[in-house]
User: Fold this.
Amino acid sequence: MAVDIREQTLADWGEFSFIGFLRDRLPASHPELLLGIGDDASWWRPAGGEVLTTTDMLVEGVHFDLAYTSAADLGWKSLAVNLSDLAAMGGRPACVYLALGLPGTTRRSWLEEFIDAFLELADHYGVQLAGGDTVRSETLVISVALNGIPAAAGPVRRAGARPGDDLYLSGSVGDSFLGLRCLQGRLSVSGPAGIFLRERHLRPRPRVELGAFLGTSGMVNAMLDVSDGLIADLGHLLSASGGWGAELEIENLPLSSAAREALRAGMCDYPELLTGGEDFELLFSLAPDRFPELAAAVAGVGVELTRIGRITSKPGIFLLGPDRLPYQLDGKEGYDHFQTRDC
Amino acid sequence: MAVDIREQTLADWGEFSFIGFLRDRLPASHPELLLGIGDDASWWRPAGGEVLTTTDMLVEGVHFDLAYTSAADLGWKSLAVNLSDLAAMGGRPACVYLALGLPGTTRRSWLEEFIDAFLELADHYGVQLAGGDTVRSETLVISVALNGIPAAAGPVRRAGARPGDDLYLSGSVGDSFLGLRCLQGRLSVSGPAGIFLRERHLRPRPRVELGAFLGTSGMVNAMLDVSDGLIADLGHLLSASGGWGAELEIENLPLSSAAREALRAGMCDYPELLTGGEDFELLFSLAPDRFPELAAAVAGVGVELTRIGRITSKPGIFLLGPDRLPYQLDGKEGYDHFQTRDC
Assistant:
């Protein structure tokens, strides 16, 4: 009887066979990478001699649910969230390190799909898998570290927003939250809109090119990526910038047609869209007179930028609804990883 | 009634309070680190412009057992295993990134002890905690990534051993295996010998200074650290070097007095000491005529180096017992993370 080797478990396949498989999947070496997978450490010569580093850990049952997340979705997303952090510094990603904690019962086919999607996204941005670790764990855990290089002008930090700056957001907000609700069966959106929302949750598109353009432009005063929710992350930006405040204009928030339709149908409200998290969009502040020049510089990237409010000298986050009347969030403001919450 | 805040759980203390605690614990910034904890990524300018990177993941119940591993032991060891990898490249460690998956019930006191021991070891070697991630996980998971810099002559790789090279090992082998057996209650060694063995398992001393000296010397042909067991790691070195073989002289193996005593008392055998793993010693190969010069160069480090055998052109690992008679390992040769095994 023929046995499908892709249905082997990792315990049968073996750690070293998996590493061999990984090495075979890698493209020809990255020009800056002098030594990749297979030694005690990798060796890399970053152009410009400076390094940006970020790391993110994803845990089964907390950050993802395998009931509706495929191996390929997870491979993609575990790199995407790190690319988003590096984009938020205005940098360019270069070398990535993948530490995997895997049950011995993991199927070879599952791992191959995970790795192929991870490497598909890596290749797209010229990122090289340069090392990692593979260990046994009953719970599936993925920890990615990413090294990249800053723009010549240095990275764009969270600190640096000034009163009077305009606040801009890339793309649209709240889609990932709605997509998660759909995947959990708590919301029903059919057709292309439903597919779009679920994709925004499972396969976020990190703003790698936009981030690098914004970093190179030297025009952005402060930036971060929206992962904990727009309100929470705006709070982080304000706090890093020295405690200024911000006005957000609810009606100016960039919403996708799918999110706008869900809002109109009463399937969600503004507070949910503003705090849902995992948008992986870039939020940045800019002196108002710089926008035309910036818009011209990033026009080729094809990502929409929307002015959503401004930095104020008065501390706090003030939401303005229709007719600039105050809008209340009802205390749903942040995301702490240790509060119980849906994944 | 007074409440001891150190008995708070992480769920009460909160992720951001923990990060604030961490930042307060950090020493004044590292001269090369331009931006540390608190942004989307860290920013670092490595002296010499080149980077070595390694990463290791430790999982509760697989790599450690909290029944006999204290928070401080674990904090220490999770950095030590990465320092050992960097030492094995002949490099100098610089910036470390700590990703923690923690149950919400983790006590503040536990975390403080973990961090204090991690930072004690980091400070000792001038390593700066520059970033990380803190997430919720039912199973305790620690994933560390470490960036460092190679010696000016470049890193010492696994590849590079040549027939005729002598094989050297730092320190002693098998202590960690015996210490683990003691901790598991499977072996009883009392007094200072028992304390020594348990310490060798729980608080390994990575050969950071020795590794950097060996790297700078430019004399070492191939090197790695012994983590999977001496035989398995020697196999990795031979395979990376193009498939040469090696002769190991059993009677020349450096054993501590405690291990020698355990061997004499029949509490263990050579195969166990050779395959037990987690020695975190450096294994390297060298042209025979270079040793006197090398020994003089590293004399100040205070770590004993022992010639344990040589590289042969005949493939395979050949153990020589008393009178250079062949010695059999009975198939206990490697470590695969997905084989079931004691932690």
User: Anything to note?
Assistant: The first strand of chain B starts at residue 33 and ends at 35. The domain at 166-327 of chain B is CATH 3.90.650.10 (Phosphoribosyl-aminoimidazole Synthetase; Chain A, domain 2).
